[in-house]
Amino acid sequence: MPVRLLLVVAGAALIGGFGLAAPAAAHVLAQPDPASAYTLTAGRLWSLVAALLGLAGAVIGGLALARPASRIGTGTGRSGAMMALVAGLAGAVIGGLIVAAAEGGPGTGYGIVGGFLALVVGLIAMALGGLALTRARRTG
After folding, report:
1. Are 128 and 56 in contact (CB under 8 A)?
2. Which helix (H) or strand (E) holds 96?
3. Cα(89)–Cα(97) distance, rounded to whole angstroms?
4. 95 and 119 in contact (C-beta within 8 Å)?
5. Long-range contacts of 134-138 (CB under 8 A, 24+ apart)
6. Transmembrane segments in this chain: where (predicted)?
7. What CA–CA distances, in Å, run from 127 to 2, 14, 53, 58, 121?
8. 3-class DSSP state of 109
9. Which residues of the chain have pLDDT under 50?
């Protein structure tokens, strides 16, 4: 099994695991009292995970888009684009769940600011992955 395929499958499994954990995150987000600015609450933790997923997808999508599509040894070039799409989708979905479940504004500990950030970065990652995927389909 080639190393690149192994890395793609491992990354997809990891991202899929976070994506399946998103409904559980919506249940954990309900908190009765506002938290201090330095407390890492469950909502803030999930928004951090979602933002990091979206950021990873944006980086992978940018690299897939910047890489020459006709370079020898790159295969079809679709694996990076697909990983960017999946990571961006997972980040956007988790961010959307955080925003939907938040019962307070910024500073209450629900992670609403991070949820909005994850939503935006996830959408950017999906756009970059989509562009890289269409370019890979045109050249491959």
Report:
1. no
2. helix 78-101
3. 12
4. yes
5. 135/65, 135/69, 135/77, 136/64, 136/69, 136/76, 136/77, 136/78, 136/81, 137/78, 138/69
6. 45-69, 81-102, 108-133
7. 28, 21, 14, 9, 10
8. coil
9. 1, 30-32, 72-73
Within 10 A of 27 (CB to CB), how many other CB atoms are there? 10
Number of alpha helices (DSSP H) and beta strands (DSSP E) in the chain: 5, 0
Read off the pTM.
0.69
Cβ contact 103:55 at 8 Å: no
Residue 2 has which token pair?
């080639």
Model pLDDT for residues 84-93, shown as the tens digit of each residue? 899 999 999 9
Give the pLDDT confidence of 37-68 residue by residue, as tens digits: 677 788 888 899 999 999 999 998 888 888 76
Q: Which helix (H) or strand (E) holds 73?
A: none
- C-alpha 51/C-alpha 105 separation (Å) is 18
